[in-house]
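Supplementary Methods, section 5.1.

A reviewer requested that the exact input to the structure prediction be made available. We therefore reproduce it here, unchanged from the version used in the analyses.
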Amino acid sequence: MKNSFLKQTILITAVSSSTLLADTYIGLNYSQLRYSDNGTTENFKPKAIILKGGYSFHKNFAIEASVGMGITNDQKDVTGYENAKVNLDYLASAHLKTILPMSKKLDVNLLLGVSYIGLSTKSDNFSNDGADDSISYGMGFDYEITENISVEANAMHYFDNIRAVELGLIYKF
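The structure derived from this sequence is encoded token-by-token as follows.
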């Protein structure tokens, strides 16, 4: 009797967890940011890696959360600032994702949400570590390679002076 109950419990748990996971996904993106600071004409281009997870609650909508960190900084000489350097310390975002199917394998996505970014700027005569939040938005596409794996490319606008182009892999459960 106990053995039968245990088997039924395991079966129900397995079926319900696979049903819940059916609409979830995780991804890993490489990001090329473009940071422009007031007072300089140069754009800095630090690079980052971003881990994301999402849940499709409707065929045309998902919620998505992501966290990232800089993997390389960008350094250059700018008028008034010798050895100026910009690094992304961290990025955290939450977005509503609109999914517009273009074909069986290709979706166009629109993203709208909020992002929190920590950024370090340094030079020989200046140093600033700051963090801020902002409304963020973007547009991109997902192309399905297999039933569970797709590639994505996004153009994101995190702040007025921080934009990014992202390329990544998504795994759908």
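The chain has one domain: 23-172. These observations are discussed further in the main text.
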